[in-house]
Amino acid sequence: MNHAFPGPTRLICLDAAGTLFRVRGSIGAIYAETAVAHGLPERRDLADVLERRFREIFPSMPAPVYRPRARVHNDRIDRAWWRLLVARVLEGLGPLSFADFFDEVYAVFAQPSAWEAYPEVAEVLLDLRRRGLRLAIVSNFDARLFPVCEGLGLAAAVDAIVIAADVGVAKPGVGIFHAALQRFGLQRAGALHVGDSLEEDVQGALAAGLRPVYLHRDWDSDRAVVPRGLPMIRNLSELHAMLGK
C-alpha cells in the first residue's frame, strides 16, 4: 500500500522489537537450552512447545502497571512481569531450578547477541537522518533495550530512546508518545510512528495525534485485515515513498 503523507515530517518514532530487530533464532530455542541447563528434562519438541506457549501467553498478559517517572520501581515491575510470564510458559513441564533459570534467561535477552537487526534497518536509519529527520525509538521494551540498541548500533543511529518504564506509561497510552515529542520540542502534526502492533503502535499513535504507519513484515504469508486507509509497509525501506522525498 502506497500512501504519501501531506505536509512536512520532522520526527519519526519507531517501535523496537519486531520493527527494528528480532530474536536471533527463536525464543523457544533459547528458553529450552537454558531450561535444560537448569534441570528441565530434555525432549525433542521442547523448543517448539516453549515457542508456542510463549506466543499464546505473551499477548494475554495484563500490561505492567507503572508509576509516573519512577524508573527504579518500574524496572522492578518489568522484571516481575517477565518472571510471571516465563513461569507460565514453563508451568507443568517438569522439575527446574526456576530462580536460577530465570536470572540467566533474563540476562540473555539483555545481550545484543540474542538479537539481530532487520537487514534494511541500518541503511534506512542513516538515510532518514541524512534527510534531516529526527529519529526516536519509542518502545514498551524494558531497560534491557539500552544495551541491546547499543550493541546493535541502533543507539548511535537515533536521537532518543524512550521506554515505558522511564515515562511511566506504556503504549498504547498517549503519554509515551507525548514524551517523545517533548524530547524534541515538536508538535504532533510533524511526527509519525512506525510499528508492528495495530493496538500498541497504530491505535496508540492515533490517540496521541501522531500519524501511524503499520509495519507488517509477514504480509505476503499472513494477509491480516488492515483497517481501510491505514498506511502500511512491509519493510522500513518503503518509508521513502510515503515521505515523498
Task: Please tell me about this protein's structure.
The protein has 245 residues and is α/β, with parallel strands linked by helices. It has 2 domains: 11-20 and 118-243, Rossmann fold (3-Layer(aba) Sandwich), CATH 3.40.50.1000; 23-113, Orthogonal Bundle (DNA polymerase, domain 1). The protein is 42% helix and 13% strand. It is built from 10 helices and 8 strands. It has helices at residues 27-37, 46-57, 71-90, 98-108, 121-130, 145-151, 164-167, 174-184, 198-208, 239-243; strands at residues 11-14, 21-23, 115-117, 134-139, 160-163, 191-195, 211-215, 232-233. Strands 5-4-1-6-7-8 form a 6-stranded parallel sheet, with helices on both faces. α9 (198-208) links the parallel β6 and β7. The longest helix is centred in the first third of the chain and has 20 residues, at 71-90. The radius of gyration is 19 Å and the shape is globular. 34% of the residues are buried.
Features:
245 residues, 8 strands, DNA polymerase, domain 1, Rossmann fold, 2 domains, alpha/beta, 6-stranded parallel β-sheet, two-stranded antiparallel sheet
Using the coordinates above, name the CATH class of the largest domain: Alpha Beta
The CATH topology of the largest domain comes to Rossmann fold
Q: How many structural domains can be distinguished in the coordinates? A: 2
- What gross morphology would you assign? globular
Write down the overall mean pLDDT: 93
CATH superfamily of the largest domain: HAD superfamily/HAD-like
Secondary-structure class: alpha/beta
Distance between the termini: 17 Å
Number of strands: 8
Number of H/I helices = 10
For this structure, the quaternary state is single chain
Question: SSE order, as H and E?
Answer: EEHHHHEHEHEHHEHEEH
Largest sheet, in brief, is:
6 strands, parallel
The percent range for helix content is: 40-55%
**Low confidence ranges:** none
CATH architecture of the largest domain: 3-Layer(aba) Sandwich
Strand content: 5-15%
Strand order of the largest sheet: 5-4-1-6-7-8
What Rg is obtained from the alpha carbons, in whole angstroms? Answer: 19 Å
